[in-house]
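Fold this complex.
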Amino acid sequence: MIELRHLTRVYAGVPVVDDVSLNVPEGEITALVGTSGSGKTTLLRMINRLVEPTTGQVLIGGQDVAGQPVHLLRRRIGYVIQGVGLFPHHSVARNIATVPRLLGWPSAQIGARVDELLQLFQLDPATFRNRMPHQLSGGQAQRVGVARALAARPDLLLLDEPFGALDAIGRARAQADLRGVQRQLGTTMILVTHDINEAVQLGDRIAVMDHGRILQHDRPERILTDPATPFVQALIGPGERAFHLLSLSAVLGMTQPGQAQGPAIPREASLRDALAECLWSGRDALPVEGGGIVTLAALRAHARQAPE
Amino acid sequence: MSRPGVLFALLGIAGLFLPLVHLRPNRIVPGEGITLTAGFATGPLIAVGLAAILIAGCLGRWSPGLRTAAALLGLVGVISSLGLAAGHLLPKGNGLARVAPASGFWLLLAAFAFMLADGLTRLRPSVAASWLILAGVLVLAAALLGSGMLAQVSVMREYATRRGPFLAETQTHLALAFGSLGLALAVGLPLGVAIYLTARARGPVLTVLNIVQTIPSLALFGIMIPLLGWIATLPGADRLGVSGIGSFPALIALFLYALLPVVSNTLSGLQGVPLPVREAALGLGMTRGQLLAQVLIPLALPSLLAAVRIVLVQNIGLAVIAGLIGGGGFGTFVFQGLNQTAMDLVLLGALPTIALALLAGIVMDLLLGMSRGAQA
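Structure:
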């Protein structure tokens, strides 16, 4: 559990983060979402002490981070930033090995860990181990950046706009990869983003920030169906709300018995995908792979679902 | 048609019509000019050969390799003509007469040197090949000097009578240039890192160094003579080698001139490291020392080597001024020569200075290319 207690950071008399308290549960992705200047990056950087709080505490596993040598603290926390920041003079393997080397792991163990991570991110170790950063595509560099942050098996990973530099296709792929890796490793992640879509896609919980304060901290469906303030509502965008909500659930949970025409949709596709398919092919119901159907009427009902 | 080739040809052919050498009854009085064609028996033949290379160089379709080889051949031809002319023209048994290189020689030398530089630029050799070419040219130069072919040329006659002092002054010159570089690196690198880390000190430090840089070298020596002379009177100072004149103030002056390039290149090299790289290094848990040693300094290395190149070439040239205040080095010959109006003696100081600066510049460029290649 990561506990932020009454964190405040003041720059030149102006509070950038203003008395923020937040509990981040272990093993989940928490998305900090807000416009630029909302204080989300500053809040994130106070966790690994790249920014020191003016007042307040950060507790990781019950321990105040302020009491620990800062470089030792950071070696236990993964950190990924928008520009990736791979060391241009080091190979991919050496980049990934950064924290294990700082921690003094034996070299055989480092080599094995590097290969393991490259495989985890679907980069062939034999091909990529000795590449230099300038030989990588944006998406590959971004994956190496995440692999580097995960190298020493941190319990906590901080991500600051990690996909900001990628194009739409690369971003979708990177988001799916991150989700998969998180499910596999169970790492606690805190993700800063300005993109509500990304927050909904990735966040088990979303914290919406504005003017240095957290306006709402909840599960994505609650944020979507029951926005706490007009700002949260505006951030979601009323026109997008229904689609965000549909994107949160898989077809699997909505199947009902019956028969339908046309090609089948995978069970793990989202309801949003199912709706798009209904509209595009002009069908009122779609067969689901493995049996059953999903109907346009059911999708419509789900999207209108009022908060319980 | 090669436009640079035409320029080199005009330069070189003008050189063929101007006197290759001056024949003088002794080392001080002016003498009569003698062209290459009139200099010695095979002179006309060599002149025709050189003219042929120059005219052929005007054609655009030569391969860069051929152009380079032709330029080298031309250089060897011009330099050996000088030696041959000297050997032929000097009256036997006359120890006073001198044969000195004249305007024609310098123009021809310049024409082929430019042609060589042009050829090499187009050839774009790899770094390894560049080292080989450099080694080849050095061996060739050593062979020309060592063969005794040039022994009768005025500058070499001056050298022959000053072999011992020449070697000593060479050592002093190198010690001044490299010593001041070493001092500047020892002080400038930490200073550059320090003003990178503390932005507030940046302006004042760079301003002071900029002012130092603008003080003319003679004025700087002028200031230092009384200043260091006074420090030298303090107890123990003379044992450290502190004095108002001699090589100590020369070393200090060269060190001061070297500081600005070292400090400003260190700073700009460090500032050139992308912000995300710095942030990532700190965020992953590097200490400040590790950040500097593992990330910032390796990435600033090309900029640091560029500073070493600037300083080395600059100080090899500037060290000549040390001769004025008894600091030694090649400047000793230059100023002695000026006092005695003996141009041959001036050349004995000037030519090795130019050669050394050129060599240092080329070697540093190659090292710079290697460091950039290593991290590109």
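Chain A has two domains: 2-236, 249-303.
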